[in-house]
Amino acid sequence: MPRTVRKAVIPAAGLGTRFLPATKAQPKEMLPVVDKPIIQYVVEEAVAAGIDDILIVTGRGKRAIEDHFDRSIELEWHLERGNKDEMLEWVRYIADLADVHFVRQKEPLGLGHAVLQARRHVGDEPFAVLLGDEIFIGDEPALAELMARYRETGASVVAVREVPREQVRRYGVVAGEPVGEGLYRVRDMVEKPDPAEAPSNLAIVGRYIIEPEIFDLLERVGRGKNDEIQLTDALRMLARDQAVYAYQTRSRRYDVGEKLGFLQATVEFALMRPELAPDFRHYLFNLVDELRTGRWPGAEQAAATRQAQPAPLKRQR
């Protein structure tokens, strides 16, 4: 019988260079989608799947993540004094959401190395990994879907999604044998392959249930793509020793580590909010009409930006 998955690991040590300059002094995981930071959506997914023991792997400049999940006595006092009960409830909810722990990845040596930092906390039991810059939403949390497949198979499970062949170079890619609806027995996997050499277009996306043997393999695997310790390479070794499965989740995925995915998530999550949706939908309809008819006031500025992206201003000396 498979053991119970009780702990989750969220790697959140990346530098967030795609969002510079916004991430120069704040973690990308703290960028808000509407009014909630990215990392909170990820933690809430783990909690919704039944996991409340969470280790977040951070790095330098990530203290804001720790502060977000801690108590803020001064803020609570201010809200309570101002009779802002709803806001007070939200602030306390965040601090009580889960038992959140932190460990630092002291060198940026890749996703596999970040997961390896969780070894002491996880111990000898299966665990979940949720990437800190991907949000999933659906009738059932993506992680809950994987946990159900883990209970069925008793083996490690990774989430996958079909992507256009030209995009496989951005992902770990799985070669698998179909064994059920959306479920594959993994035969091989490769990190960021050339599209012409990719074994399929089934890309690994940011949710995993992994057996603890992965830690020994991460110690041995050595550096791979981009001179980093890749989790995909260790999972490939694991699949040679024991069963590993891939599952196509039904949840909708937002890659909020990319600007386009972040903007898509912001728009769609705003449309899901009852207090925002009517006015925001009206705004979007008007904007689309202006874009279609060429009456959008920002059209000329957008055209100029496409022609010449302005360089950062240099300080006069």
Q: Quick one: overall form? A: globular
CATH superfamily heading of the largest domain: Spore Coat Polysaccharide Biosynthesis Protein SpsA, Chain A
- Our count of helices gives 12
Q: Which residues sit in consecutive blocks of at least 5 with pLDDT less than 50?
A: none
Gap from first CA to last CA:
70 Å
CATH architectural type of the largest domain: Alpha-Beta Complex
CATH class of the largest domain: Alpha Beta
- Beta strand %: 15-25%
- Fraction of residues in helix: 25-40%
Strand order of the largest sheet: 8-11-9-10-12
Which radius of gyration do the C-alpha atoms yield?
21 Å
* Mean pLDDT value: 90
Could you tell me the number of beta strands? 13
Sheet/helix structural class:
alpha/beta
Region (Disordered): 298-317
Catalytic activity: alpha-D-glucose 1-phosphate + UTP + H(+) = UDP-alpha-D-glucose + diphosphate
Organism: Thermaerobacter subterraneus DSM 13965
GO molecular function, one term: UTP:glucose-1-phosphate uridylyltransferase activity
Describe the structure.
- This protein has 317 residues and is an alpha/beta fold.
- The chain has 2 domains: 265 residues, Spore Coat Polysaccharide Biosynthesis Protein SpsA, Chain A; 29 residues, no CATH class.
- 37% of the residues lie in helices and 23% in strands.
- It has a 5-stranded mixed beta barrel with strand order 8-11-9-10-12.
- A hairpin with a 2-residue loop joins β2 and β3.
- α8 packs across α9.
- The longest helix has 17 residues.
- The chain starts with 6 loop residues before the first strand and ends in a 10-residue tail after the last helix.
- The model has no long low-confidence stretch (mean pLDDT 90).
- Belongs to the UDPGP type 2 family.
- This is UTP--glucose-1-phosphate uridylyltransferase.
- It comes from Thermaerobacter subterraneus DSM 13965.
